[in-house]
Target: VOC family protein
Amino acid sequence: MASRLNPYLTFGGDARQAMEFYREAFGGTLTLHTFGEFGQADAPEADKVMHSMLETPTGFVLMAGDTAPGMKHTPGNNISVSLSGDDGAELRGYWEKLSAGGSVAVPLERQMWGDVFGMCTDRFGIPWLVNISEPQG
Model:
């Protein structure tokens, strides 16, 4: 898979409804995963969206999730830029450049869903999410 760059929206508890709305607006295939699916089945947020992705017939990709437990939802500051793909060397190179001089919120390392993931804010204040998946086939 080639690397992709797309917006990542964060919601305060209504990510499912928002993403269903965007699917109605743009069409396409929507996948949703809850916090409960990833080891937090007993948490109050278990039914909230940890990650979702809408892929449209025109090639649009929109990702979103509800604010993670322990983090504050701040409307106006609820959009990040997502870089994802399976070319680890390429994506690690982007990570190194984007995080240099900025701040790292989540180090680029293997996560509970199996991918390598990190969150940083570049030196200009733009939040970035980098996700490296295993190459397919």
About this structure: The radius of gyration is 15 Å.
